[in-house]
Amino acid sequence: MKDTPAPSPSPQAPKASFASRLFGYDVFVSFALGGPPRGTQSYASDLARRLRERDLSVFFSEDEAPPGEPLSDTLRRALLRSKLLVVVVNRGTLEQPNWVRTEVETFRAQRPGRPVIPVCLDGSFRDPALSDAVQPWLQHAGSIWLDEQSDPAARGLATDPLVARLLTAPRRLTANRLWRALVAGVGLGLAVLAALAAWQALVAVRERDRANALRDQALSRQLAAQSTASLVRDPVRALLLAVQSQAITRTPASDAALLGAMSSLPVTRLQQHQAAFAALAVSPQGDALALADAHGAVLRGALDQHAVETVVAPKVGINLYGAVTAIAFAPDGQAWAHAGSSREISVHTGTGSSTLPDGDKIGEATPSFVFGLAFSPDGTTLAAVSSSRSLRLHDLASRSARLLLSSTVDLAAVAFSPDGRWVVAGGDQGYMQAVAVAPGAAAPRFATTAIGTVAALAFDASGRWLFAASRGGRIEVFDARSGERVATQDVPGQGALERMAVSPDGRFIATGHGNGAVMRWSWAADAQPWPGQVLLRHAGAVRGLAFAADGRTLVSAGQDGRLFVTLPVDRGRWQPWTGPAPAPPRSEARGVRSPDGRWIVWPGTTAPAPSPFNVDTSGLASVEVPRLTVVRASDRQPVLDGAELPGEMGESIAGNPVFATDSTRVAVQVGGRLLFWDLPAAAPLDTAVALPPGARLLGAAPDGAGWIAGTGSQAEQRYVFEADVGRWAQVACRLAGRALTVEEWRRYVGAERPYAPPCG
Q1: Of the four listed, 154, 409, 646, 676, which is most buried by Cβ atoms within 10 Å?
Q2: Distance between CA atoms of residues 486 and 477, nearest Å
Q3: Which range has the worst mean pLDDT, 505-514, 626-635, 740-749?
Q4: Distance set, CA 590 to CA 359, 599, 606, 635, 671 (Å)
């Protein structure tokens, strides 16, 4: 192609485009350097430009390679990577082809079959002699060659018709198009990869979120289970774990744990003492309380304040004469007394304190315990019973004492009749004896059938009824005038009956047991058995129990060192409801329909009743528990068929089930409590809510505030149990009175989560 040697021995790399470098050249333009009569450089340059404008990749040495006499590696590579060779010739070039011939011959030898198109600028192919002379190397006779118009060629210009004819020569995609296709393909591939990467990232985020959600649900359920397990052993921690379970994520388990904590702790005050309690008394006015612990300390405080005053310091070391086992308030609430094994009774008044000898002298090494104290209605005398089997009456003004009764058994309880005319004492082996105090008074005789030691005695405010509790687990009610027993109730399964308290109106009886249970009873002379329920539980035996002046607030102290002040015992966390009555459920031929119309629910199962002639005992243990069936309203297909609720054997659902206003939960009444089924989770809530005494489930509050129950034949009194879990969490935090410690957080929640307890 070149007619003049290049001065540079090392040719530079071509300035090829990316398309040319990757796919080669569409056209290689071969020409002779210089101008006419031999050179065709000017025309070749314009032709190359015109072809590039038509989107062809063109190798034109003057643009892409330095001049050089030898066919350099650069030119050779470009020539051999070209799809089409265009040879620009005139007479002078044909007569002296030099390197143009070399380029043609090299191209034909290395790329046989690829087109070689001569472009004649001056019609010299019409000269037969010249045409025949170049035929051996140019081989134009057997192919189509192109003639350019003379005038434009002389001016170095390529014409449109010739360029158009050349454009028909490439049979495949041009390099530029291939390059653009490649770029587009790469771009599309990158876009697809980017989309796939984005999708994978989204999937990864979703999977991460799902994994985190599953982890949170697992942790929430774990905390809920630990909360439930801690309710009796450590109620404060149970409250904190239940709230933390809700804070991690809300699940049916977290709802059950928090609801269980709320219903199991119907209290306004929960206080932990450093030692076990031994005795408790509440003033008749209900604003003051006195406590004694196992170390002999005596404490004084108020129901609405957590702070207590130490009246008697605790004893250090082993002291047989330091125990305090009995405390009592005078009717006016101004005086109070405590006694134990010290052989002295301490009496406290607004002006100071004094001591009275208990009168028992059994030997220096044998302590005698005072187990019961009772002030007379006028507050002038104090009755005391002890393990020395004596009942003594102490005159507080003269500090004198007289022996009223010497029994054959140890005495453990004492009570004054409300008129002050007689006093009754109880003790071991079911012993119960009334003794007249006032001159000319007569004491009734009580025909008790107590089981074991009579551990507690109490009157109602009117003095009509006398209540006796024996440690073996029996409560008896007597007519205080005649001594006739009018009612009795056995309390099995709760351990020894340690303490008893009676509301001033005599309607409610509270009992404290050796297993820590505090029970509430509603009694009637003609009712057997009495309606009762476990209000709460201590982690040790109940050592003190008393009603406040309102007759509904109960105070209990236990061997676990805990002091509880309850909500009203007749309704717990049920609040009076003055809003509209709940709408009646949408009844079906069988069952009730949910508010959203999707579900129908009824007690029992769709299974047919077994024939009396075909007894199948294999399912006997399960058919006696309360069951619930839920079907889709659209096609009546069961979603749950006879699902078991966490009730007791032999219990059944009372009345119709009730849907929550959002149709997510179903409440059913079983006995005197509510059980719940969570529809989204298809599982029961593992907890129960006690109903007020004699109440029945009416429905859900129209505004979704909670569940409504009513008492009376026409449900005249209505109560609502709040369903706001956020409110439950607030109450739980307030009752706990603290937050999870850092150590508790690491133990239960885990060190990987930053310390942020919801209870501040």
Answers
A1: 676
A2: 6
A3: 626-635
A4: 73, 12, 11, 14, 22
Q: Which amino acid is at 689?
A: V
CA distance 440 to 436: 8
Joined together, the tokens standing for residue 386 give: 């002890």
Q: How far apart are CA 34 and CA 181, in angstroms?
A: 38
CA 113 from centre of chain: 78
User: Please, what is the Cα angle at 33 between 30 and 34, to 5 degrees?
Assistant: 140
Residue with tokens 């007689």: 422
Q: Which positions ≥6 away from 425 have C-beta within 8 Å?
A: 372, 383, 385, 391, 405, 407, 411, 413, 414, 431, 432, 433, 434, 435, 457
Q: 10 Å Cβ neighbour count for 102?
A: 18
More confident residue, 168 or 415: 415
Per DSSP, the three-state class of 20 is helix
DSSP string, 304-332: T-S-EEEEEPPP-S--TT--EEEEEE-TT
Buried b (16+ CB within 10 A) or exposed e, 602-637: bbbbeeeeeeeeeeeeeeeeeeebbbbbbbebeeee
**Secondary structure tally for the chain: helices H, strands E:** 15, 46
CA distances from 233 to 239, 270, 379, 539 (A): 12, 13, 40, 5
Nearest Cα to Cα of residue 58 among 179, 178, 175, 182: 175
Residue 647's pLDDT is 79
Q: Is 642 left (phi over 0), alpha (psi -120 to 50) or beta?
A: left
Closest CA to 337 of 399, 390, 270, 389: 399
Give dist(CA 574, CA 572) in Å, integer: 5
**Residue with the larger pLDDT of the pair 229 and 139:** 229
* Axis-axis angle for helices 99-110, 128-138 (nearest 10): 50
Q: Residue 598 corresponds to which tokens in the numbers above? A: 């999707």
Tokens read off for 336:
């109070």
pLDDT in tens, 350-400: 888 889 887 665 445 556 789 999 999 999 999 999 988 999 999 999 989
Cα–Cα distance, 521 to 545 (Å, whole number): 14
Please list, in sequence order, all residues whose beta carbon lies within 8 angstroms of the beta carbon of residue 259, skipping any fewer than 6 positions away. 676, 685, 687, 689, 728
Looking at per-residue confidence, does 495 or 499 come out higher? 499
Residue 527 pLDDT grade (very low, low, confident, very high; cuts 50, 70, 90): low
**C-alpha distances in Å from residue 495, one per residue of 472, 473, 511, 512, 592:** 8, 8, 11, 9, 42
First to last CA, the chain: 91
Tokens in use for 280?
A: 């408790």
| Section 123-149 average pLDDT | 84
Closest CA to 691 of 715, 708, 716: 708
Pairing of strands 497-502, 508-513: antiparallel
Cα torsion for 96, 97, 99, 104, to the nearest 10°?
-170
Taking only the tens place, the pLDDT of each residue in 176-226 is 777 777 788 888 888 898 898 999 899 999 999 999 999 999 999 999 999
Rounded-to-integer distance, Cα 648 and Cα 657, Å: 18
**Count of C-beta atoms within a 10 Å radius of residue 574:** 24
- pLDDT bin (cut points 50, 70, 90) of residue 581 is confident
Whole-angstrom distance, CA of residue 738 vs CA of residue 742: 12
Give phi and psi for 623, each to the nearest 5.
Answer: -75, -15
- The DSSP code sequence of 152-210 is HHHTT---HHHHHHHHTS--S--HHHHHHHHHHHHHHHHHHHHHHHHHHHHHHHHHHHH
Distance CA 171, CA 590 (A): 82
Cross-strand partners of 711 = 717
